[in-house]
Amino acid sequence: MSLTQESLMAALDGYVDPLIGRGLVAAGAVKSAETRWIGKPCITLELGFPAAGYHDTLATAVRRHLQATLNTDADVQVGWRIASHAVQKNLQPLPGIRNVIAVASGKGGVGKSTVAANLALALAAEGARVGVLDADIYGPSQPRMLGVDKERPTSPDGKRMHPILAHGLQVMSIGFLIDEEQPSIWRGPMATQALSQLLNETDWQNLDYLVVDLPPGTGDIQLTLSQRVPISGAIIVTTPQDIALLDARKGLAMFQRVEVSVLGVVENMSYHVCSNCGHHEAIFGEGGGARLSSQFGVELLGQLPLQASIRLQADGGKPTVVAEPGSDTAQRYRDIARKAAARLAYGAVGGTFPDIAISDD
Asked: Which of 53, 80, 107 is the last residue of a domain?
């Protein structure tokens, strides 16, 4: 079989990457494909999500696919370009920010802030420019988790603040502006206004993703924020136990009601890892995240362990992704980050999100 441009493009479209969920040509991932090299085509792929930890895997898989289908070796290069994606009606992406990803939970205590910090660091490790907005006005934890709780933002012009830099992230939090021991005794409208100022009066610098660590719950503040902040996608964090899942359903339904795409569910504390023997035990039950994902037609992005080191690293200002980048848990965070970014770029694997009818009952 002679190699032609048509046969090459057909073969590339026949490879369905698990993160993209469709053929490379159909996904618009083939930037160029040239057959002018005798016996060895030259292919450049451009993904819609950062893939520093994945591009070699994809390039190898594509070369093997072409060897099997066309009996030819190929030079395959993989890059990425992150575009802005759709937000809620009547809202526009913010200056300096291509995409806002909200990390939410129906209730507190499920490790949402730890997941948000590590997710942001994982996206950065994959090659994106990432910021973190700590939207938990009443209990800001990102400054401590990212090791910059003693920092204070500057404002050279008196109008806009420079974000604090932490482990390569641009970070803003009410925690930078008040004393750590000072409680935020604010009513809902005051808290919402404070968050709006943090978001809009920070001089974000060319971010691919702004990860917003939302307050737990689905009350007035969360609903107002989800309506006013241009969100490209949301991630729901839960634990496997039934009580957490009940509240997680409310959070997921809230985003669908305001027409924010839910990128998927992260099941935190899926199992406990014994620090002495390494035994895994499902303390909070099993399968809850998978059931929630199946019920709402979204993806289970990943499962994370209940592990002492995760807590210790976050308390110490160096979350797992930077403290132990080669660990199994850090790789789990990076897998979750890639899947979430891919869902944002290409939609759900195998189709679009189903329509879910939400009532007030």
From this structure: 80
